[in-house]
Hints:
Blueprint: H1 9-24, H2 30-34, H3 44-68, E1 73-74, H4 79-84, H5 93-112, E2 122-125, E3 129-132, H6 133-160
Helix pairs in contact: 1-5, 1-6, 3-5, 3-6
Amino acid sequence: MAPRKLEHPAIDHLDATPEVLRLVMAGVSEEETQWKASADRWSIAEILEHLSHTEGHCFRPRVEKMVGEENPEIEPYDQEAYAAAGTYSNREAEESFAHWEEQREDNVAFLRGLDPAALRRTGRHARLGTITVEELLNEWAFHDLGHVRQITESVRAQMYYPKMGPFRTEYKVNP
């Protein structure tokens, strides 16, 4: 009998996110990926580098640790500290996107290869307490969708809103 493979809606979303973002970003210039609506907002390029960074420094390592150890300690991911340190800045959007896509493909294969019982594995998050792999998968997909929304809003604000003429009075953008 073949081992069971993990199927979960969150993994399906994780698998689809790069393609969704490629479609949303069709026609976006490198200059547009560097645009920030305000000093306290991230550019598309910064969001893509953040996605790439969390893929390899947050989500995958957490799942591996929770599957491989008995109720391990899970450190918080401080995105504000990484942003302040410039971790997400000064990178070309396409470079970050390509790196993230490669990691994501590998991570989806890793997740699908897990036994379904892995969903019940736990870890102790330093701030949030006990978490399960399934909760982490749901957070991972939720995280993705939030950044899809951010990038989509930036594309709306830059590519279409300025060219809508009088229709601009009918909409509000919040990049």
